[in-house]
Design brief:
Elements: H1 3-11, E1 26-30, H2 31-47, E2 51-52, H3 62-70, E3 76-78, H4 81-89, E4 94-97, H5 104-116, E5 119-124, H6 127-140, E6 144-149, H7 163-174, E7 178-185, H8 196-219, E8 226-229, H9 238-241, E9 246-247, H10 257-260, E10 276-284, E11 290-293, E12 308-311, E13 318-321, E14 327-330, E15 342-346, H11 350-354, E16 359-364, E17 367-373
Parallel strand pairs: 1-16, 2-9, 3-4, 4-5, 5-6, 6-7, 7-8, 8-9
Antiparallel strand pairs: 1-10, 10-11, 10-15, 11-14, 12-15, 13-14, 16-17
Helix pairs in contact: 4-5, 5-6
Length: about 375
């Protein structure tokens, strides 16, 4: 969205029915649903004796991070160093970087960030990276807190459980300017298993591996005060294992189509509501049973199914990608959408959709109440 469009939106804040007039395509956040989601996850963690460290890769927003911390979160997770820098610039003081930082430039930036933040942590999954981190931290002359990243089946990052992980922990523990705090493990390959019984069985098996590694570190006298992991898809499973000290769920604040398609078990649905939408407008309607909107490939993530229409179109209408800038709406026989019609859709996958936008248009009901910048958008390094 252009700066002119954002200015137009800001000028509309507080006006009656201003939601319908937001320049499109736009990312819209329903503040009431969002606040309920934040409160429900915070309460869930309190009731289960878990800390909550939500993943900022989902929202990339300082305003949202502040709201989560105000509700009781310990701090945030960041997938990239650049995200952590953006969060720190916005005043977020407790950050866990959940991917290894390995380049020379990255290590320099990490040390600089560590000098500014009271509580920065980073994960390590390789002895070579451990030695580089130790050297960089020594140059900075301030201890850097680290977690061993354990591979519990995803194979994206993480070191193999058992002797290799224990040896890495010992290497980190021995480094003068590194402070070993514990373990991280993320079973991302399990989060979207539709069948609840299967997801529960495999998630608890992953937690068992993590618990055994925790016990191995403690048996050797090493610190393992922090065991961080889990996600939205296993939020109600992980507490059973009594292994995690903090939960890293992220998507619960928005609830995209991928998570709505996941079953909770016993016919139950997630207690979290859809709060994030893409709002679009009809720009052409010359073909029978077809309308074209201004939201195409550049407005949604494309790693999942097309977005689900929620409002503005007749029952039975469906969205399809129609080009870089356009989306198509297939309409029931005889239906027509007037030019300028406003439609909303659920995001297919919230994280990469958010990364396409500069701001959230925050609404209560039909009123635009604020515009929140997405400060960490595009921070790929």
């Amino acid at each position: 969205m252009t700066s002119e469009a954002l200015k137009t939106a800001r000028d509309m804040i507080g006006e009656p029915d201003s939601r319908a007039g937001i320049p499109t395509p736009a990312l819209v956040l329903d503040l009431d649903a969002f606040e309920r989601n934040v409160a429900r996850m915070a309460e869930h963690c309190r009731l289960n004796g878990l800390g909550l460290r939500p993943h900022a890769k989902t929202h990339k927003s300082v305003s949202i991070a502040r709201a989560q911390i105000a509700a009781g979160a310990l701090g945030v997770c960041c997938a990239k160093l650049g995200e952590a820098e953006a969060m720190a610039a916005g005043g977020i003081e407790s950050i866990l970087i959940t991917s290894p930082v390995v380049t020379k430039q990255g290590l320099g930036r990490l040390v600089a960030l560590n000098a500014k933040l009271p509580d920065l942590m980073v994960v390590v999954d390789n002895p070579e990276n451990a030695r580089a981190l130790a050297a960089a931290a020594a140059e900075g002359k301030r201890k850097l807190k680290v977690l061993v990243d354990l591979d519990v089946g995803l194979h994206r990052t993480g070191i193999r459980p058992g002797e290799e992980a224990t040896d890495l922990a010992e290497l980190l523990d021995a480094a003068e300017y590194l402070e070993l705090r514990g373990l991280q493990a993320y079973a991302g390959h399990l989060m979207h298993i539709h069948d609840f019984a299967e997801r529960r069985e495999k998630s608890l098996a992953a937690m068992k591996v993590l618990g055994e590694q925790r016990d191995a570190l403690k048996a050797k006298g090493m610190c393992c005060d922090i065991v961080s992991g889990g996600g939205t898809g296993s939020y109600n499973i992980d507490p059973e294992a009594n292994v995690l000290t903090e939960l890293q769920g992220g998507s619960y604040i928005f609830m995209d189509k991928q998570y709505h398609d996941v079953a909770l078990g016993n016919g139950a649905s997630f207690p979290f509501e859809t709060s994030l939408f893409v709002q679009m407008s009809v720009v052409s309607n010359n073909t029978k049973s077809l309308a074209t909107t201004d939201a195409g490939f550049k407005s949604f993530s494309t790693d999942a199914e097309p977005p689900k229409l929620l409002s503005g179109a007749p029952e039975g209408a469906g969205y399809f990608f129609f080009g870089d800038e356009q989306g198509g709406i297939l309409l029931p026989e005889g239906a027509r959408l007037p030019l300028g019609s406003v439609l909303t859709a659920m995001t297919p996958h919230c994280d990469p959709t958010v990364n396409l936008y500069d701001a959230y248009h925050v609404v209560r009901g039909d009123v635009l109440v604020d515009v929140w910048p997405i400060e960490a958008r595009g921070r790929s390094a």
